[in-house]
Each structure stands twice: as C-alpha cells, then as structure tokens.
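[Discussion] Sanity-checking designs against the backbone

I'm trying to build intuition for which residues belong where. Below is a structure token string of 205 positions. I'd appreciate it if someone posts a full sequence so I can compare it with mine line by line.
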C-alpha cells in the first residue's frame, strides 16, 4: 500500500470516531413502517424485505458475512454462520421499525463502517478481503470489552452486540438447534428425567 493510500485510510478512521454510530456511506432512511404488531401471521411464509425495506448495502452485507464467519466459522459439525441466513437476520434487525432494533441500528452500521476502515488502515483492504489471520488479529482487539482500551471501547460495544445477534440467529435456525442437540418440538414416546449427577449439582432432589 502506498503512502497516499495509507494517509487516506488514517484520515477515514480518524473521521469515523466522532460519528462512530453512523455508517460512513450515506445513511439509509430510518424505517418508519408499523411492522406486523406483536405477533406475525404464523400461517404466512415471510421473506426478507416483506415487512419493511431492508438496510444493508452489498458491501455491508459482505462485511456482515465475513465477521459472522469469524465468530461462527464452519467446522466438522456445522456450516459457517453466513450460509444459514445470519446476514439476512441482521439486515432485518437493523431495518425493523421497533425501539429496540432502532437503538441497535447505529451501533451495527457504525461498527461495520469502522471495521472496514480499520482493515484498510492496518492492511490496505476492507474486512471481507482480509486473510483469516488478519481478520482474527483485528477482532482480537475488540472482542473483550474487559481488556479493551479506551480507543476501542465503541468498537468493542459493536462487536459484543454483533456477536449476540450472530449467535441468536445461528442457534435459532434448524442447523443451530441440531448443533446444540436440541430436540424440542418433537413427539416422544417416553420421557427421560434429568441425569442424577446434574440434579445433585443443582442441589435438586
């Protein structure tokens, strides 16, 4: 990366700090729809964008997918988070017109902008284009708020929220439930009580 490009990245990251909660690209309009109320129609199959306009641009989706896969990569038992709808879930989350999701929206959008700018400052590429080692190195600095310095306090807040949303989306999916060994909502002929050693550990009879 040449000197001029380095300077551009440094300026971009510096400019991001006063506006960390805002994406550096033009901000999409704040959702104003009424949503679907307290309960969706459980007889209807909903698709992304059916209830309200979605927010994430193509580059933001790529960054979301890359970061989700750092948090929950593919292994011998399960696929990577990005392959089972986690990106769509997060896009729906930041797009939904509800107080909780709208509170999280600027944190997610600002964090995606920051992690791309920081990847450029350190390695000359946006986050999704970094090697696995470079992505891990960047995430190591923001993954634990307890040991994160003041310079990374806001990125650490973003990472904690993003990690929670990624895990929620993954483990609420059929693949995630299978990964946990969850067998709820399945008719059973017999009921096995909790193991005796577990009851003892919990001080239960």
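Best answer:
Here's mine. Compare freely.
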């Amino acid at each position: 990366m040449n000197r001029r490009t380095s300077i551009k990245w440094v300026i971009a990251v510096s400019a991001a700090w006063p506006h960390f909660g805002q994406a550096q690209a033009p901000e999409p309009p704040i959702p104003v729809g009424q949503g679907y109320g307290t309960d969706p129609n459980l007889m209807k199959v909903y698709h992304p964008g059916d209830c309200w306009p979605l927010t994430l641009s193509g580059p933001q989706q790529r960054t979301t997918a890359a970061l989700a896969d750092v948090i929950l990569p593919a292994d011998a038992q399960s696929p990577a988070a990005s392959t089972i709808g986690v990106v769509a879930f997060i896009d729906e989350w930041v797009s939904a017109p509800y107080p909780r999701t709208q509170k999280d929206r600027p944190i997610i959008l600002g964090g995606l902008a920051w992690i791309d700018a920081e990847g450029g400052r350190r390695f000359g590429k946006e986050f999704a284009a970094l090697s696995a080692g470079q992505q891990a190195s960047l995430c190591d600095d923001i993954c634990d708020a307890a040991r994160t310095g003041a310079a990374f306090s806001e990125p650490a807040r973003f990472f904690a929220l993003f990690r929670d949303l990624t895990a929620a989306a993954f483990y609420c999916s059929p693949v995630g439930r299978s990964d946990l060994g969850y067998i709820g909502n399945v008719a059973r002929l017999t009921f096995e009580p909790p193991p005796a050693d577990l009851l003892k550990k919990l001080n239960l009879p």
